[in-house]
Structure formats: C-alpha cells, structure tokens
Amino acid sequence: MRFEGSHLGVKPDDRLECGICWWVYDPEQGDDVRGIPPGTSFADLPDDWCCPGCDAPKHKFMVTE
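RESULT FIELD:
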C-alpha cells in the first residue's frame, strides 16, 4: 500500500481501499450505493464522492497492490 492520499495519479484499473473502514473501490464493479457505473476509474469519480462504507472522503483512499 501507499500512503494516505495516494489516489492522486492512479491508473484507470487501480483498486483503492478506504483507510478508515477498508472498503475497496474496484473500477470494474463501480459503486452501486452511489450510482457509479462499472468501468468508472477512481480518478473519474465526482469530487464529492465518498466511501459508501463510512462516508470518508476520496483523500482517505489508498491504492492497493
């Protein structure tokens, strides 16, 4: 894992994990809770998107390896 805030400059297929509740955003699956369709990269999520598990903001996510 990288440091908190490592969501900056992620690749389109990178999976990111919430540093608070460990929920994983997988671009292949999208986010049913927030209405994000499959195929949406983390970088393309709206600025106000937050973790569906705990409402953490995007900067709390870390790229998984």
